Amino acid sequence: MNAGPVITAGNVRDLEEGVPSVVAAEVGGIAVAVWRGKLYAFRATCPHEQGPVGCGRVRTPLVSDRTGTAGTDESRPVVICPWHRWEYDLGTGRGVRNPRAALRTFKVWQEDDTIYVDTSKRPGREG
Q: Residue 23: exposed, middle, or buried by beta-carbon count in 10 A (0-12, 13-18, 19+)?
C-alpha cells in the first residue's frame, strides 16, 4: 500500500460481501467494503465515540412508509458500528438516525482486481 492521496487497498477477491476490511491504518484508518457488487470506502473510526466501525457489518436498512409497512432499501446500504449500533449510509456517510453525525467517505474504484482509494477527496457523482 502507498501513503499518498491514492492508496492501493488490496484485491477485490479478498473481500467478503458485507464485511468491511480495514486497509489503511497508516492514513487514519480506512475501510473498504463490497455490497451488491459496489465498492465503498470510509473512515474506519466511528464519529460517535471512536468505535471500530471498520469492523462492523454492512446491510440494507429497514425502512417503513406512513402506513407502517416495513421493507428494506437496497439502494442505500449502511455500515453498523459494533459498539453502539450507530448506522451510517455508505453512499453519503450520514448517520441514519442522526444526520449530523457523519462518517467520512472516499472515492473508491477497481482496476482489474486491485482496489484504489483516493484519500484526498470524497466520492463524486461519477464514483
A: buried
Displacement of CA 41 from its chain's centroid (Å): 5
Structure-block grid coordinates of residue 25: 491504518
Give domain limits for the chain: 6-118
The architecture of the domain spanning 6-118 is: 3-layer Sandwich (2.102)
Q: Which of 118, 100, 110, 87 is nearest to 34 (CA)?
A: 110
Q: Rounded to a whole number, what is the largest CA-CA distance in the chain?
A: 51
Residue with the three cell numbers 449500533: 85
What's the distance, CA 106 to chain centroid?
9
Taking a C-beta distance cutoff of 8 angstroms, is the pair 39, 30 a contact? no
pLDDT tens per residue, range 35-53: 999 999 999 999 988 889 9
pTM of the predicted protein model: 0.82
